[in-house]
Write the structure tokens for this entry.
Amino acid sequence: MSALYRQLRPSTFAQVVGQDHVREVLTAAIEHDRVGHAYLFSGPRGVGKTTSARLLAMALNCDTDEPAARPCGTCESCTRIRAAEHPDVIELDAASNNSVEDVRELRERAQLASLGGGRRVWILDEAHMLSTAAANALLKTLEEPPEGLTFVLATTEPERLPPTVLSRCQHFRFRRLSETEIVSKLKRICSEAGANAEDDALSLIARSADGAMRDAESMLERMMASGQTIDRTATEAALGLPPQERLEHIATALADDDLPGMLEAAEDLYRDGFAPRSVAERLAVLLRDAALNAATSADGFTVNLTRDRHLAALHQFDDDLQRFTRQSDLYALELTLIKAANAAHGRVPGGSQAEVATAAAMPAAPSRPSPAGSTPKQPASKPQQPAPKPQPPAAASTPAPAGPPAAPTPGEVQKDTPAPASPTQPASEPASSPAPSSPAASSPAPAAPAAGGFDRAALEKATPIRLRAFLKPATDTVEGQTLVLTYAPEFAFHRKKLEERLEDLRAIVQQVAGDGWDVRIDGGGAEPPKKP
């Protein structure tokens, strides 16, 4: 028994779904007897290229006297062409007949007369597989074929054909079919076969087919084999897709900043056998649909995020999907989700203390109104940038803490030693001291350099990627030869994961700073409760 998509091949142009721009031109050419000698049908797989080539062959050999009714699909010639038994209609696979010798044999056969008295049609499928030499050998026959011979080349990659071949053919570009067009035909198939199918299931099949009707019909045939009602749950299971409800749970946890709940749900999907890349891709599609539903006020799943935050999360998913070409495991999925959650909630964990301080200050001043007062003042601290040049005399200024008590401002926290040594603007510096809007956020920053100059950037560079994501949200201080990593309460999950790998981190700290160094993890509090 042949496959469903072969049984359902259209027998007339009227049955072709979509591709109206191709159908109308071909039917007009047949009706007015203006059929060309060479055609090129290009487009994605499963959209009707070979089917249209066969319909053209049927129309040129149809026994019906009325040109507008060709092909009828029922006469002897049409029936034989559909069954691939007509002697004047030949289908060749260019993937296996792509040498110069094959083309020479084809040219010799082209000189033979029609066996059935009709018009000969040669359909060359996968035409892009022709070698350059074979394509050049075909040029003359393609340009001036014998009387009564029509060539139809079908390909998914027309750009691989030489321009000389393209210029000798009437080129028709087939498009991907829309989801609505595919669903409409699937419903008709189910109705004719007496199968029950839910609209959600058919929509999922249509979307998974990616515009290819043949793929959609193959998937539908697989679902119809059970003889049961085709619902979304059964379709997801058959196609190996993560369940919609579980993806919505992850998306909701991401929007609610429920990090433990989000990662636990992702791990459950991974343990149930779903590929991390598949989970990430389907989650990105779900967030895309949610953004569209929110923008158009349509019914359907949405998440509690502003448009900017929602789009930031989508951008992060798009950037991180390439991660799965290098590794496709649970940790790759966790990192993708963590970075998407950070993007959705405006967190930008830095790789140095200054970046962490900046990230901590962001929630206090992300909106446009508040920077209005601070923006003019930040350039005021820029003139102090040349101060590092007289850094050598910093040793003399270090034991003299007689400078103004408010001198270590957040803007100068990394340059606190050279500041007293700059004699140029002693009066302007105190004036610019109160300018920063969030001194509390940057107060942890001077701790590490002042207490031994521990290099946070070197630590993160030496830390494997599996630990680096959990290390980033921590602020660091130094007590003697102990590196103290402090987490805010909302990063309890990061702290817990890092504590599980404390020995590994301790070895990395000693590698960066030397023997005798230790590491301690503080803060974080208890894990935030899960959203009900």
Strands lie at 38-42, 89-93, 120-125, 149-155, 170-173, 475-479, 482-487, 518-523. Residues 276-296 form the longest helix (21 residues). The chain is about 50% helix and 10% strand.
